[in-house]
Amino acid sequence: MNHLSSKRLWIAAALAALLGAALLAPAGVGAVAAAAPGAPEFSGSAEYQFHYGFKAKDITGDSLKLRLALDGDIGAMAGYHVDASASLSTKPELTHRFKLGEAYLDVSLGPLDLRVGNQLVNWGTADGINPTSVVNPRDMLAVADLDIAGAPVPAVAATYYFANGSAVTGVLVLDFVPSAIPGELAQAEIEGKPDKFRDKLEVAIRGETMLGGHNVYASYFYGWQDLPAMWLQATVLPEPYPPVMMPHLKYRRMHQFGLATAGTLGDAAVWLEGAVTVPDKLDELDAPPPATMALSSNDPSFQIVAGADYTFDIGTGLFASAQLIYDSANALVSPYTQPGQERKAGVYSLLVTRYSPANDHQLELVGLVDLTGRAGLVIPRYTYKLAQAVELSVGAITGFGDDTSPLGAALPVARGVFAGVKASF
Q: What's the N-to-C CA distance of the chain in angstroms?
């Protein structure tokens, strides 16, 4: 089957799923409610979205996504969940893939809960940007929607609940799943990826309790960094050509120590989350220039997020959230420094407001400001609920700043408008 036929097939399938979901949406809740107790429950979604870039004067990205999930119980003590997705993109190039998401078995043994299989382990108290949530590999912050996506990992997780309300969770990851390598670096040869089973193992532990009316979490992780360390090294070419600086990448292990808390202050929710990361040292990163130029560091780094949200009594309720992010490695947007530049700590502010002027209508404004690099992204979005489970959204991406900061450097490509439709069933 050629690319054109494949593309048409995917588009037809996605549109059929969108239409079917739209037709079934009004009866969706009733259908779920009518399911027999303990019977498997199917759910899913179909969505299409695109981004039109002002600089390119063309559609710079689009995506069709189909997602299906199955949940059910096995007796009174066990349950299961399986989900999978398929996607098609025609911009910037034609790509399609099928991906198994989470697929796990839950078992409850009194005060002990077990989860075995491909899973997401979501830790942390902050909203979206969680320094302590490192069990799953995370992609870089997507400037189009300020989202950080994680990938499931094969693992065994166990949580023991004490009578006083405290709990401890242990996670054994059975395979190393790296993050997607950004840009052209994905074509480079990467050293250090483990091949023996015992070398692939990762371990995480978290304890939680209540102190002064606030939830408090302490965590530890020992495993592999999601992205490899990187440096440029001079490669000698035959005469008369001068040496060329070639990129080298290598995976390494790390320790991470985390602390998080969440609670309320009056009618506002407040949170504080931070983590210190200590990577294994690589001699190549300490080699003197100009023969070697390090784009990663051997130094420990730390990230702290403090925030609060509050709903103001205005109309139907105006939701507002504000977070302050300190990142000593300034790797929130770009994981590597530019050649010849010294990486400086980054301080960011993430602001979110939402308001529903009427039923089925929602206005949202999201802003990310680089306070040290004097750059920022602003993303207004309008969402209209066409039916009970069908949403249409339109928005824009704009901002300010120049290429002296990682956020400003991403602006020219990000500026534009976007639209999408999503049907859930």
A: 30
Neighbours of 300 (CB within 10 A): 15
Q: CB under 8 Å, gap of 24 or more: what pairs does 411-417 form? A: 411/143, 411/375, 411/377, 412/55, 413/53, 413/55, 413/56, 413/60, 414/53, 414/143, 414/144, 414/377, 415/53, 415/54, 415/55, 416/51, 416/52, 416/53, 416/54, 416/55, 416/60, 417/51, 417/52
| Angstrom distance (rounded) from CA 101 to CA 93 | 24
What sign does the dihedral 108-111-117-119 (CA atoms) show? positive
Compute CA 157 distance to the chain's CA centroid, rounded to the nearest angstrom.
20
Chain segment 367-397, per-residue pLDDT in tens = 999 999 889 999 999 999 999 899 999 999 9
Residue 378, number of CB atoms within 10 A of its CB? 15
Q: pTM of this prediction?
A: 0.85
Distance CA 46, CA 54 (A): 27
Other Cβ atoms less than 10 A from the Cβ of 147: the count is: 11
From the list 126, 137, 120, the residue with the least C-alpha distance to 81 is: 120
Q: How far apart are CA 390 and CA 252, in angstroms?
A: 44
d(CA 49, CA 377) in angstroms, rounded, equals 20
Q: Find out whether 275 and 301 touch, Cβ atoms under 8 Å.
A: no
- The verdict on whether omega for the bond into residue 240 sits within 30 degrees of 0, i.e. cis, is yes
pLDDT value, residue 142: 59
Residue 258: partners with Cβ closer than 8 Å, 6 or more residues away = 123, 124, 131, 132, 134, 206, 217, 218, 219, 220, 221, 273, 274, 275, 276
Query: What span, in angstroms and rounded, lies between the C-alpha atoms of 225 and 179?
Result: 9
Question: Cα–Cα distance between 156 and 173 in angstroms, integer?
Answer: 7
Separation between Cα atoms, residue 192 and residue 260, nearest integer Å: 32
Angle (CA) 76 78 80, round 5°? 130
* Average pLDDT over every residue of 39-66: 94
Decide: residue 239, CB within 10 A, 0-12 exposed, 13-18 middle, 19+ buried.
exposed
